[in-house]
Amino acid sequence: MDLSLSTRNVSGPGGDRTVVEVGGEIDVYTAPKLREQLVELVNDGSYHLVVDMEGVDFLDSTGLGVLVGGLKRVRAHEGSLRLVCNQERILKIFRITRLTKVFPIHTTVDEAVAATD
């Protein structure tokens, strides 16, 4: 399966956010596409990102590495990276790797956008 990406800007109580909707599989083959998108957004001045993973079917360690890299990138600009995920099989990966302590994980995009830093 391939990876689909789309972005949109939204405003919430915490300020402006860029939502990155991700669909498909984030693996060793498709993760570079996500990395490229995150790097481009940060380079363009988007420092508060919401990665919507509701459409993600599979996530491997390469994908986790891309998300951690994205978090480091936005934090270098005093930014934030929030995840939206409500699929148990994907959430389990974040729990096992203890990345639930690193990433704010929300159940909806609206909840993530409304969150303040």
Write a structural description.
37% of the residues lie in helices and 35% in strands. It has 117 residues and is of the alpha/beta class. The protein has a single domain, classed as STAS domain (Transcription Regulator spoIIAA, 2-Layer Sandwich), CATH 3.30.750.24. A five-stranded mixed beta sheet has the order 1-2-3-4-5. The termini are far apart.
Brief write-up:
With 117 residues, this protein is α/β, with parallel strands linked by helices. It contains 4 helices and 5 strands, in the order ββαβαβαβα.
Topology:
Layout: E1 3-12, E2 15-26, H1 31-43, E3 48-59, H2 61-75, E4 80-84, H3 88-96, E5 105-106, H4 109-114
Parallel strand pairs: 2-3, 3-4, 4-5
Antiparallel strand pairs: 1-2
Helix pairs in contact: 1-2
Overall 3D form: globular
Biggest sheet features? 5 strands, mixed
Quickly count the helices. Answer: 4
Helix and strand content put the structural class at alpha/beta
Order of helices and strands: EEHEHEHEH
CATH topology: Transcription Regulator spoIIAA
CATH architecture: 2-Layer Sandwich
CATH superfamily: STAS domain
Q: Taking all residues together, what is the mean pLDDT?
A: 94
Structure keywords:
single chain, Transcription Regulator spoIIAA, 5-stranded mixed beta sheet, globular
